[in-house]
Amino acid sequence: MPLTIQHDDLLPGRNFIGGQWREAQEGRRFDVTDPATDAVFATVPDSGALDAAAALEAAHAAFASWRAVPAKQRAQILRRWNDLVLAHQDDLGRLISREQGKPLAEGRGEVAYASSYVDWFAGEATRANGDVIPAPVPGRRMFALKEPVGVVAAITPWNFPAAMIARKIAPALAAGCTVVCKPAEDTPLTSLALVRLAEMAGVPSGVLNIVTASRQRAAEVVDVWLDDPRVRKISFTGSTPVGKHLARRSADTLKKLSLELGGNAPFIVFDDADLDAAVDGLMVAKFRNGGQTCVCPNRVFVHSAVHDTFVDKLAARVSALKVGPASDEASQVGPMINARAVEKIERHVNDAVERGAQVVVGGQRLASMGSNYFAPTLLVGVDSSMACSMEETFGPVAPVTRFDDAADVIRAANGTPFGLAAYFYTRDVRRVWRLADALECGLVGINEGALAAEAAPFGGVKESGYGREGSVHGLDEYVHLKYLCQGQV
């Protein structure tokens, strides 16, 4: 049975611009499909430059009044939004699972995760404190104030359609910014539903605007925002090539940027590790959302002394994973988002096998289930020449590489242009701090596979981008500092 929701008002099916739900000005729409079946189950506006410009006009017009709303009132609106998100958790979870494919338990869990960011930044709205600076000479008073940057353009990915919207929009609104948003073309319905709840919570007209667009017209929408100097901030989660394009295009108007881009996370298991805990951590980090996460371990390094034991334990767990559609509550791994994703996974597995890797578990499409299913896979004998070591697979494939020397594995872990997340398991306290210092990344899991939390700064280094989301630092991405100097005191 397909997943259905109880509250049809969560499916407005239109753009939200200037406090009104509107069709695209050129009247186009595009299909939303269920990745479990490839069946079309909804349509949304296929927006273009005219719609993007209208959204920007509305956000720009609303900025002066929204920034003047006291922080406490902005916080109250965010808390009402959060209450509504939690009240509709089951419907939102079903909607996520229907359009994105992740198991229903994960869909519901993502709603709670999204809620945590709205709640967090409701609190941070009232803590955007500045500084009183000791004056170097008599007769002066010196201050540094935090002010909202202005209109923010948020561009969100398909793998966490609720959490990424919340992680960008909540701090923007908390800081006093207004927002234009384009959700991913594969998962627009969840984003529209969250904006509908924000409207119900009392977000004023023009403060939050969202336009949907197909893959073919996405650049047309975003280019309007990149070229207009009234957009002062871009927040993007997605691929490194697109992030680089946004950075180049933003240079002409010197926009502030937050870019959370690709990853190639190492997962290192030392010979003194608690192997059962390491397997548990890898299962959580690797197979959540079918491996379609930016912090997903993409390279698994296991010390030779424990390699075979670890692989045996991991193989048993991977073999036991239940693959199926989100409509089956027992499913642990759902379909991939689309055919392109499956083709990439298959290419990586075939390349590894052709270069000498061995398949322990899985390794093939599950065509009998549908066109977007791929079996959870465990590979051994993987080396750095293989595509799965150099590129982000973004699928349920765990490629294992042996190592013997700590210095060698650190070099291998850092031997990538990316630097988002890294994980390692060891009982040696001295090694913990040596590795934590040596790994070139923004997030480190030490004997832990679940990293993200609203109170923690999320973001990468190198070609994984810059800027941080969440935590006390997340609000700073949406403000700038103004220095005041008063003389003749």
UniProtKB/TrEMBL annotation:
<dbReference type="InterPro" id="IPR010102">
    <property type="entry name" value="Succ_semiAld_DH"/>
</dbReference>
<dbReference type="Pfam" id="PF00171">
    <property type="entry name" value="Aldedh"/>
</dbReference>
<dbReference type="InterPro" id="IPR016160">
    <property type="entry name" value="Ald_DH_CS_CYS"/>
</dbReference>
<dbReference type="InterPro" id="IPR016161">
    <property type="entry name" value="Ald_DH/histidinol_DH"/>
</dbReference>
<feature type="domain" description="Aldehyde dehydrogenase">
    <location>
        <begin position="21"/>
        <end position="483"/>
    </location>
</feature>
<dbReference type="InterPro" id="IPR015590">
    <property type="entry name" value="Aldehyde_DH_dom"/>
</dbReference>
<dbReference type="InterPro" id="IPR029510">
    <property type="entry name" value="Ald_DH_CS_GLU"/>
</dbReference>
<keyword id="KW-0560">Oxidoreductase</keyword>
<dbReference type="GO" id="GO:0016491">
    <property type="term" value="F:oxidoreductase activity"/>
</dbReference>
<protein>
    <submittedName>
        <fullName>NAD-dependent succinate-semialdehyde dehydrogenase</fullName>
        <ecNumber>1.2.1.-</ecNumber>
    </submittedName>
</protein>
<dbReference type="InterPro" id="IPR050740">
    <property type="entry name" value="Aldehyde_DH_Superfamily"/>
</dbReference>
<dbReference type="InterPro" id="IPR016163">
    <property type="entry name" value="Ald_DH_C"/>
</dbReference>
<dbReference type="InterPro" id="IPR016162">
    <property type="entry name" value="Ald_DH_N"/>
</dbReference>
<feature type="active site">
    <location>
        <position position="260"/>
    </location>
</feature>
<comment type="similarity">
    <text>Belongs to the aldehyde dehydrogenase family.</text>
</comment>
